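FAQ: What does the model actually see?

It sees only this:
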Amino acid sequence: MRFPAIVLWCAALSGSFACGSASTLDRVDDARLTAADADSANWLTYGRTYSEQRFSPLKQINDSTVTRLGLVWSHELPTTRGVEATPIVVDGVIYTTSTWSVAYAYDAATGRELWSYDPHVDRSRARTICCDAVNRGLALYRGKLYLATLDGRLIAIDAHSGRAVWDVKTVDQSQPYAITGAPRIARGRVIIGNAGAEFGVRGYVSAFDAESGKLAWRVFSVPGNPSKGFETPALEAAAKTWHGEFWKAGGGGTAWDPIVYDPDLDLVYFGTGNGTAWYRDLRSPGGGDNLYLASILAVRASDGQYAWHYQVTPGDNWDFDATQPLLLADLSLGGQPRKVIMQASKNGFFYVLDRTTGKLLSATPFVDGVTWATRIDTVTGRPVESPSAYAGMNAVLVSPDVEGAHNWQPMAFDAKKGVVYLNARNNSLAVHAPNAEWVNDITNRNMGVDQRYEGELRTRAAAAGGPRGELVAWNVNDRKAVWRVPLPVAQSGGVLATAGNLVFQGRSDGTFAAYRSGDGAPIWSFDAGTGVMAAPVTYLVNGAQYVTVMAGWGGTQGLANPRNHGPMKPGFGRILTFAIGGKATLVPAPYGHPAPPVPAILLDTTPAALHEGQLLYRTYCRFCHGLDAIAGPVPDLRYATADVHRQFDSIVRGGARKALGMPAFNDVLSSSQVRAIQAYVLSRAAAAADIR
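And it is asked to produce this:
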């Protein structure tokens, strides 16, 4: 339903009553998005502007006044899983998302919920989601919000009422695709990628008409079966860098997060992910660069035609996908003006490319301990791989680890200072043990990792200690850190920088903090009650500056591994809003267990059965329920009650709790195998006194 441009809209939905100006939402079009940098009062798109620099010119909250920053309001979310969204804020209304792709609208000044929209994602799909049931946010265009759902749909929502306008499938839902990223707008089209490379899919990016939902174009990131021909000359060229029957496992290369649009060049940029399997000798026997895995690609917004690519990690063998945030900027480098695109890669190097041509301008390590490559050759653009980083089908010990030196968490850029602010992980180590018996299986993780490997490299990795977390200020021109702030946790959240000489960031231990951007000095903090992964936003309402952040620590594998993350604070998700003089208090709902677990039942077993249960748990369970059965946002199975244990088989094999996000595994697990897993979980409860 369309609204006259001059009327006020009111909608009574879900027991709430919302009023606001219809005309301003309808006027968020190409021109307004292009000029978003001048609109300091609002946060119109995922990264605030098309450049996604996440820098706000607002300075009412600054390094002098931030000590008086206080909570204005908070709103609890009905989830204990990951909350990663960046809100959209327009004229005093916040639009955001949470777990299972549920969207919300709030009054930005009061926190009153205006409407919510639940796309009713099939929660049994949790089995084929890499990294929790998260969603990173919405796009806004001409009065509609665009929501990409975990089950692969793209939905247009009337921003005034919260009602769906159209709903289209962007993926084959019989395949293990998922979407966790936020859509982007380019020339009246909604651009979205997908995830699923860990399970075995072929990645692509799609553009849909924003008004009708009709598919405009689609760009695949890896070639398909050569016998069926190639969609484009670029894919035909890419196929020459693959070997074997790679297409049978899909190939991977999913563009699951970063998409950026340059309206001046009319180019859409996106980063692609890892291959299926992780290891080149499994997915492409004979090697090869395997284009366009782990790459940054540029395509024309008008028709999706290939413009250029840069492969960050050729022939990736370490899960070094190139799906970290992309920043656009106009810089002077070497005395010459350059239109650049930047990425702090998972592989530990900070890349600066010419975004017109894709030419590499610089690549510099931004963390310590990078061992997979000694340097990036700026002439060829290729890494010089370390001899120790690859040993065919033999295990290797490599840094950074699979969580990377930097991951999906947004970074910010202060153009006047020439400094990028980002979270980083130093000295992280991973054992990569390819599984020679790997076969393609879309019902399970297709990484090709040998979960049974317990060799000397595993011992060395454990002895090395865990990674160190840092907040880093990186000078792009000087190619070095201006400052580094050591963090008490290895993993932290996205970043916001402002003209108030501030950098805001949250952490996994529940701290939401402000740092002085000039020297990194911490000058304000707040206990969010749960870990913070998402990046904050800032905006004006009635002349007052606010800061809003989504809180909720989630994720899957490694979530409850103190070695990888340090202290963590899982709990119920929430949205928090701050302003100068805020006096509200936060009383988080209790979460967790006050005492060590005690085995709820006794189960006769054998050492062989326990070992089998451990291997099966690692293969099927740890990605949600935590390494060594120590969980975070989903139930900790060590605390399962006797009643749960009596239903263990019906839950795991029968899907008795699939509506809660616990899918059925009857197609891959027998009753005896489930019993072995149950015995292993009970053994972990019995050993709790030793592992706490």
